[in-house]
Amino acid sequence: MSNFMDRLSVSYAKGIIRWRWLVLLVTILATLGVASGGRFLSFTSDYRVFFGDDNPQLNAFESLQDIYTKTDNILFVLKPNNGKIFTPQWLEVVQDLTEESWQIPYSIRVDSITNFQHTEAVEDDLTVADLVEETGGLSQAGLDRIEQIALSEPALAKRIISEDSTTTGVQITLQLPPDDAIALDEAVKFAENMAATIEATNPELEVAITGLAPLSNAFPAASMADMSTLTPLMFLVIIIFLIAFLRSFTGTLGTLLVTIFSTMVAMGAAGYAGIKMTPPSAMAPTIILTIAIADCVHILVTMFHEMRHGKAKRDAIVESLRVNMQPVFLTSLTTVIGFLSLNFSEAPPFHDLGNIAAIGVIAAWIISIAFLPAFIAVMPVRVKPVETGKSSMMERLGEFVIGHRTKLLLGMGLIVVGTSSFISRIELDDRFIEYFDTTVPFRVDSDFTRDNLTGVYQVEFSINAEESGGVSSPVYLAHLEDFANWLRAKPEVVHVNSITDILKRLNKSMHGDDDSWYKLPDERDLAAQYLLLYEMSLPYGLDLNSQINIDKSASRMTVTLDNVSSNDMRDIALESSQWLQDNAPGYMGADGSGAAVMFAHLADRNIKSMLSGTALAFVLISLSLVFALRSLKLGLISLIPNMVPAIMAFGVWGLFVGQVGLAVSVIAATSLGLIVDATVHFLSKYNRARTERGESSADAVRYGFRTVGSALWITTAVLVAGFAILSLSTFAVNADMGLLTAITIAIALFIDFLLLPPLLMLFDREKATATSTAPAAPAE
Amino acid sequence: MSKKLLSTVFSLSLVAFTSGTVLSSAALADEAADIAKGTEIAEEWDRRDWGFGDTESYMEMQLENRHGDKSIREMRQKTLEVPGHDVGDKSLTIFDKPRDVKGTAFLSFAKIFDPDDQWMYLPAVKRVKRISSKNKSGPFLGSEFAYEDLSAQELKKYTYKWLRDEPCGELQCAVVEQTPTYENSGYTKMITWYDLSEYRQQKIDYYDRKGKLLKTLVSSDFKQHLDKYWRPYNMYMENHQTGKKTRLVFSKIEFQKGLKDSELTKNTLKRVR
Predict the structure, then answer these.
(1) CATH placement of domain B47-83+133-257
(2) Is A161 contained in some domain?
(3) Same domain, A198 and A243
């Protein structure tokens, strides 16, 4: 069987060399053909892409947005260098900004302190007017009055105006076409230009921009930044590595071409498939570049080794393919399985990442066993006849491992257990603002907003009344008020927006602005008529639909939270639902929703969905190892070095970092496919030594170190470097994933060199038979 | 020789100059003609509605959000024509449904350039409140109609410009661009389709403050009263930006019931049923 595969590989290799020009032509043309799909690639700009169509939090939020005015928004935050915002100068800026904001594309509503509809009673007249009308002639008394009204108005304080009066916001509600990156960018760019203009004309004013629209717009920016900075950086690192390790121009060039072609094929296929790039899938090019190298390195290292030992180039190519065909295929297969398992993820961007990377890996496999040998065959290759020190160093390492196998087994066991115990310190946290690092303007502005004005995370409730028009019912309003007060008492809650505040204010205004009437109306008809009156007096762009549904059978409560962890967000949402269930009539039951809540559940849901995906990948990968090595025993032994690295990596993360979000859920599956590679190469050499050469397990370990040791160093170094580069991403999910994967791969090599050989020598002790019928159905 | 050349150049440039002036003044004349034509059409529309006296209409307002949820309100409206071009009409709106606002009455004296005078009677407190608000461009009762869409369309509220004639359904329409002349309008312009047989406003496109198409009003089921006055019994307003829709369906419109000015005052508001 093994001989048959070898013979097949040999005739395949000879065929490639014979038809080398044709192979080159076909692979290049095929690559270009698929790569042309790249012109269809586009970037998505909707934070909702992180949620599958059947995500319950997404659906809750979508149905809330169907009932009320949409929540896509832009929030301008203005803060003078010193002093209060309540001066004629600054109020005029706010007023102008409020007016100009109507020019922002897709704006449908603008809210600020100046256009806040203040109601005031003068005898039998009820004045409903902008809180700030004329800024020019405002006296100090007038300014004080406006300040006092704004600060005592629950709808404004800590939402649109800060408690210390130094910071204010102008809130723009947008009605954007769904997932239209151009429309979104147009609106956000317009707002950014406005902010820049205001800052230019008012140097002592700081203007920040946050909101869900800038959040959405930050995603394509992050994707493009990753693709335009990290991918080239990866190229540079690859070139340095290849030159340093291969010391061959042709080898370096050939490998580079393989990696580029593989990436082009993958991205082209993604384009044809209509995949829209998101920050996670924007990692794909870097990942493919990294992985594609491994195949080439294994083929080239063997080839150069043979040439150094006197073989002619073409013979060396044939020998290299004979030895590497199987492991290269196997490592590609396991990597593909690992990436495809991402399709189990809750978050669709990871499906895209997995599928694009899988295509890239398959392309890399085909190109490195077809294009690469043909390319080497036509290009000049020179090797120094002298062997470098690497190999002997690896041999010394091998001797060390063989000599200290028992100590290593115990020591490594302790390290594994010790490191893994820190997993408990890992905390899941997905604050979407912190997905972006502090070099991203959106993050800086959002932090500024949180520090100076209001929270950036919101939980929304749509609370039903008993019937149509029921929002006016005193029972409903009383419970709504209790709920709002209960929320306001929580330290994490910055602001609560509720219709009860409107009704209390109207009641007061209808009673000559008497403070003792600042309470809820106690009759349904009265409340309904107040609402009608208020509704009839609102100006352009303001209506009650942002807070009350059209048949007045439900109202919306928006709770703004401080910078709390996503755990706390989930808890608040849960406690709130529980409070409503315990304290309000059954029909008022509601679950919190909103972008913050969606992201707060994402990592959790994703881990659960990835558990089965990871398990399946693990089973499939282990089965392919058993099948390929034709040994159940080796397959079983391989479980340990395949499973342990990810666990240890989480432990290391728990020890040094602690917090992790969405990234954690996909690491086990994707890194599995990669770390298995080292195990596969080592085991396949070990197995070859045992079965072909009939060596003892210690000698087979020696053979393994000698033949693949340095190739494993190189490929691991490249993989670690590649994923470490991803950790430079400005997008936390990518950075975490890159760093965690890099740690996992580094640990995997450590385990493969120091733990796997002692395990082999412990469990695979019996004398090997030199026949090809290795234990296919082991007796154990 | 050089003199001749000079004079040739001079006369050539003169020709060029005058023809340029002629061209631009022709364009100006066209523009003026279009404005005149547009204004004429609007005047004809206005003239045909003169002397209706007073009306009493019964209507149902159907609100629909983009999700398809619906809500219905019922009301009556009494309108009194105030002669002259400089003042608007007076109107009284009485709400019948939903039940919790039944009997609430809204009195409005339309003004052309200033905010309307408005009073509201709330039966739950049996009080009349004068409302001072710049809500002309605001939504009427949470619907897609703004006050300015529903309040009597006085001629002077807009400037007019004829754009083209084109078929509209089975009729032929003049398409006229109308630009609000009053402050605080929510629109930069409206495009109105007047049918050329009876000068009825068949359709209006409203453009928002950004100059983007905001909503479209389609009027239908026109009925003629007293052999003269046409009224649509169905007005359908669709907001293209939010996807929300409002349909106004009239069940009855009565003309010249003898409504008196003295019935439309703040003091009589309490007594309306």
Answers:
(1) 2.50.20.10
(2) yes
(3) no
Q: Is B179 exposed, middle or buried (0-12, 13-18, 19+ CB in 10 A)?
A: middle
Does the pLDDT value for residue A428 go beyond 70? yes
Angle between helices A389-403 and A756-763 (to 10 degrees): 50
The answer to whether position A332 is within a domain reads: yes
Name the packing angle between helices A595-629 and A632-656 (round to 10°).
150
Could you tell me if A128 and B131 are in contact, meaning their C-beta atoms sit under 8 angstroms apart?
Answer: yes
Q: Does B135 touch chain A (CB under 8 A)?
A: yes
Same domain? A40 vs A96: no
Least CA distance to B148: which residue of chain A?
A540
Query: Do A362 and A502 sit in the same domain of this protein?
Result: no
User: Which residues from chain A sit within 8 angstroms of residue B131, using beta carbons?
Assistant: 125-128, 533, 536-537
* Nearest CA distance, A512 vs chain B (angstrom): 11
pLDDT digits (tens, 9 = 90+) for B82-131: 877 677 788 899 999 888 889 999 998 888 777 888 888 989 888 888 88
Assess contact for A535 and B136: CB atoms under 8 A.
Answer: no
A397 and A272 fall within a common domain: yes
First to last CA, chain A: 23
Interface test with B, best of A64, A134, A525, A538 (most B CBs within 10 A): A525
Task: Tell me which chain A residue has its CA closest to the CA of residue B97.
Answer: A469
What CATH number did the domain enclosing A31 receive? 1.20.1640.10
Residues B79 and B152: beta-carbon distance below 8 Å: yes
What residues does B117 pair with on adjacent strands? Answer: B109
> Which residues on A lie below 8 Å from B123 (Cβ)?
525, 529
Given an 8 Å threshold on Cβ–Cβ distance, is A105 in contact with B210?
A: yes
As a whole number, mean pLDDT of residues B266-272 equals 81
Asked if B97 reaches chain A (Cβ–Cβ under 8 Å), the answer is no
Contact between A535 and B135 using a beta-carbon 8 Å cutoff: no
Query: What's the domain range around A538?
Result: 461-551+558-592
Q: Do A683 and A578 have their domain in common?
A: no
Convert the pLDDT of each residue in A9-38 to its tens digit.
888 888 888 888 999 999 999 999 999 998
Going by their DSSP bridges, the two strands A73-80 and A168-174 should be labelled as: antiparallel
Q: Any chain B CB within 8 A of the CB of A475? A: no
* pTM listed for this prediction: 0.83
Domain identity same for A484 and A346: no
Does A407 lie in the same domain as A284? yes
Tens of pLDDT, residue by residue over A49-102, are 888 888 888 888 888 888 887 778 999 999 999 889 999 999 999 999 999 999
